From TrEMBL:
SUPFAM superfamilies for this protein: P-loop containing nucleoside triphosphate hydrolases, TPR-like
Domain of life the protein comes from: Bacteria
Record protein name field: Tetratricopeptide repeat protein
Pfam families: TPR_10, TPR_12
Regions annotated as coiled coil: none
Example of a GO MF term: ADP binding
Stored InterPro entries: NLR-like (IPR053137), P-loop_NTPase (IPR027417), TPR-like_helical_dom_sf (IPR011990)
Length: 708
């Protein structure tokens, strides 16, 4: 009773046994570049305890490293659960422990994971933060950057692209290449040679009977004999994933341990559950894939018998999402109570972890849970139909609660990017039309949030995927589908694809105007996006006319004080010439920042944008001293809130350079513009229109400075 704690200490008192689990995370809440914490260690969760068979393929891989060899690519292919990753892991360990070769490991299961992992590889090989930011946002070719640094690496390397089950992802960005400096190993379910030109294909199949039996005995040594294990292995098709799950089940039974004979009998009399293994070819009529479902079903039956039905429910809920890392914070919300008590979520998750049905992973400081895609597919296919509606609606509400209701500009948030694949996966599971509408609205909000943090590529890809899935269900004239297409157009604009953005936004705005009216908020939103594209394409008169239409429409539909109305009015400040500004109602136009501050507050993003645009107007009017003072404050605020490489921060710095030049500070102006150009090259790429404009402005400063 005399115990005490100080600072962050804790005292626990109990009259009986007590088990306490605590999790702490210490670090930067806004890590700079989003990606895996390490590419130097295989991201496999639990390493294989022992590798059975596979000696021939491992020897072939090891031979490729002789005499510092390079320039080779190997593709380990086979159906899900055959142990392709285990082979790659063993080779990775051999390479990194027995030579001076650097090992690099990337999860290639989806676009986001592949891109973040490959950019982390570039970072490991020496790429700068600015270059990584540009590639991450899709504003310069990411694959070119990565392979430039791989090719120039001072050390030989091994690059593993794990779970590359969609080869189109690798082909789209030209991510898969070879280099004389290193060796590439790909693990995939896709075996067709056309996907892997120039690579050496190595098939990873099911285990031989003796090795399969020995693997089961390795995992559950006290459950039976080698002969009994061989019978189970035959029933499970000698698939390593099935054997691993079976071994995990047998080794974790405490109150009422099962023997291998008992397990075999349950397999023989139990109902067969089909396994969906997307991307794998049917091997034969005796294809063992359907037996994996029965393997995990025995574990779920044991959960039910032990009063852990919440673990079954939780796994079925996880199966509504993707096999990508799912932030744990998503599961720690009150909305989960519609399928299982929130207080029981921890014990349910612990049960799944103990049975190897899921694992904990860390992605850029975000703690996540991740399950094998084959397992989730089989769980999803066997979920009782009467449970689907409640599971889908719960998953939808969990996503909804995890995304900001009013997305604002700010530094990148790794957790948001992780949510994208799960919204898409939930739609692909085939939810009811009313849930589809809810999901599209949530996904649109997620795309907006990603866009406003500067992650334009993820925002665009999210919108594109949502449209592809939802349009056949809801129809091309659905309001939410059109809004998703409009958001995609805004993303194309930010990526520098002006012509594509103009065509898409014109089409969407026309449809919205016909369906909902010219003053509908969605129509006006597309109009605001379109006028930005037109202005940057040099179609000034059309852009200005459209912007005035949007301002009038927003005043009518939303009111003068609405943030969107104020935002559109603020945009007018950047489009008018000096004579046009003087012809306007100067008192209203030039006092717009004060109006924004009064109605929205001094720290609101729209207020900050209005002050930025107002600085431009002062510059156009020749009031350089006033403009200089204001843009300095704006630039400092941008850098403090968003970082120096945030697009608006760079834009403010460029305006600051213009003003310095007009004030006669030529050296300072040129120095500022050199920095702006370098940042835009790194963040946008050499060919982006904004980079070209900065390059032209710097050339003008240089030539005029020399003439003076």
């Amino acid at each position: 009773m005399g115990g005490h704690a100080e600072d962050s200490g804790r005292v626990y008192q109990s009259t009986r046994d007590q088990h306490i689990n605590e999790y702490h995370y210490h670090g930067d809440e806004n890590p700079g570049l989003n990606g895996p914490d390490s590419v130097r260690r295989p991201a496999v969760g639990r390493a294989p305890v022992i590798l059975r068979d596979r000696a021939e393929v491992l020897e072939r891989l090891r031979m490729s490293t002789a005499d510092g060899g390079g320039g080779q690519a190997f593709v380990l292919h086979g159906m899900g659960g055959c142990g392709k990753t285990a082979v790659a892991y063993s080779f990775f360990q051999f390479v990194t422990e027995g030579s001076d070769r650097v090992g690099l490991w990337v999860n290639a299961s989806d676009r986001a994971s592949l891109r973040s992992g490959m950019l982390a590889v570039a970072s490991d090989r020496g790429a700068t933060d600015g270059e990584l930011l540009a590639a991450r946002n899709g504003l310069r070719p990411g694959a070119d950057l990565v392979w430039e640094y791989l090719n120039s690496s001072a050390e030989p390397w091994l690059l593993v692209l794990d779970n590359a089950d969609d080869p189109e992802i690798l082909r789209e960005g030209s991510w898969l290449r070879t280099s004389p400096v290193g060796i590439v190993v790909v693990t995939t379910r896709r075996a067709a040679a056309r996907w892997w030109p120039g690579a050496e294909l190595q098939h990873i199949g099911v285990l031989p009977r003796e090795d399969a039996a020995q693997l089961l005995c390795d995992l559950a040594p006290d459950s039976g004999t080698l002969d009994q294990a061989a019978e189970i292995a035959d029933r499970l098709g000698r698939l390593p994933l099935a054997l691993t799950l079976a071994g995990g089940f047998l080794s974790h039974q405490v109150l009422d341990p099962w023997t291998m004979d008992a397990y075999r009998l349950h397999l023989e009399v139990g109902e067969r559950v089909e396994l969906i293994d997307q991307g794998a070819d049917i091997l034969s009529d005796e294809d063992p894939r359907h037996l994996v479902g029965r393997t995990w079903q025995l574990t779920l039956d044991a959960f039910e018998e032990r009063g852990l039905s919440e673990a079954v429910t939780l796994l079925r809920l996880l199966a509504r999402f993707a096999s990508e890392p799912l932030p744990l914070s998503l599961l720690n919300q009150t909305e989960i109570a519609s399928v299982l008590p929130r207080a029981r979520t921890e014990s349910a998750l612990r049960a799944l972890l103990d049975q190897s049905l899921t694992e904990l992973v860390d992605v850029s400081g975000v703690r996540c849970v991740q399950s094998h895609g084959v397992l989730l597919d089989s769980v999803a296919s066997a979920t009782p139909p009467e449970s689907l509606s409640r599971l889908n609606s719960t998953a939808t509400r969990l996503l909804d609660a995890a995304i900001p209701k009013l997305p604002d500009a700010g530094p990148e948030e790794p957790r948001l990017r992780l949510l994208g694949p799960h919204a898409v996966a939930l739609l692909r599971r085939g939810v009811a039309p009313e849930t589809t509408e809810d999901l599209v609205g949530i996904a649109n909000r997620l795309a907006t949030a990603l866009h406003r943090t500067g992650d334009y590529l993820s925002a665009w890809e999210n919108s594109r995927s949502i449209v592809e899935i939802s349009e056949p269900v809801l129809g091309p004239e659905n309001r939410l589908v059109l809004a998703a297409r409009s958001r995609g157009g805004r993303g194309l604009f930010r990526l520098g694809k002006y012509d594509e953005a103009e065509m898409l936004l014109r089409e969407v705005r026309s449809s919205q105007e016909q369906l909902f009216g010219a003053c509908d908020p969605d129509t006006l939103d597309s109009g605001h996006g379109l006028q930005m594209v037109l202005g940057n394409l040099g179609k000034r008169e059309e852009a200005l006319s459209l912007l005035r239409t949007v301002i009038a429409g927003r005043r009518s539909a939303l009111g003068d004080a609405h943030p969107l109305t104020l935002r559109s009015q603020s945009s007018l400040l950047t489009m008018l010439s000096a004579s046009e500004v003087e012809a306007e109602d100067n008192s209203a136009l030039l006092s717009l920042p004060l109006a924004c501050e009064r109605r929205l507050g001094p720290d609101h993003t729209i207020t900050l944008g209005a002050r930025h645009n107002h600085s431009w107007t002062l510059y156009v009017l020749g009031r350089f001293t006033e403009a200089n003072e204001q843009i300095q404050q704006v630039a400092e605020t941008y850098e403090r809130r968003f970082g120096p490489d945030y697009p608006n921060a760079i834009s403010a710095q460029q305006l600051y350079a213009r003003i310095q030049y007009k004030l006669g500070n030529f050296e300072a102006a040129v120095e500022l513009m050199h920095d702006v150009l370098e940042k835009r090259r790194n963040s946008l790429g050499t060919d982006h229109p904004f980079t070209a404009a900065s390059r032209k402005l710097l050339a003008e400063f240089d030539s005029r400075g020399k003439a003076l």
